[in-house]
Amino acid sequence: xxxxxxxxxxxxxxxxxxxxxxxxxxxxxxxxxxxxxxxxxxxxxxxxxxxxxxxxxxxxxxxxxxxxxxxxxxxxxxxxxxxxxxxxxxxxxxxxxxxxxxxxxxxxxxxxxxxxxxxxxxxxxxxxxxxxxx
Length: 134
Fold this sequence. Notes:
Elements: H1 3-13, H2 16-19, E1 24-28, E2 32-37, H3 52-71, E3 78-86, E4 95-104, E5 108-117, E6 122-131
Antiparallel strand pairs: 1-2, 2-4, 3-6, 4-5, 5-6
């Protein structure tokens, strides 16, 4: 899967409010995807930091792209669980969101996501579980 293929998955399969985040696929491989969440003042909370809701959405979306790459293309899936730890705020910077498939089963998949400001240290870490309907 190419970055262009992954970008098309974003365009064709995600709700308009997710698309409004303007996520861009930076890289994709058979078990990993990196998306860029561009900084937008509309996503900032009090104090100018990117809000947790935007980061959680970007993490979930990046994982769907990583799973799609691992599956050889998009197929419907459902987020069963997501746990996120916010380690430091991100202010006035794009966020790189890297999702990795940890284990792919027949009906369940597990992954982890790292988020960091471009050129910065780890800002948030998430783990996810997805149901893969037959």
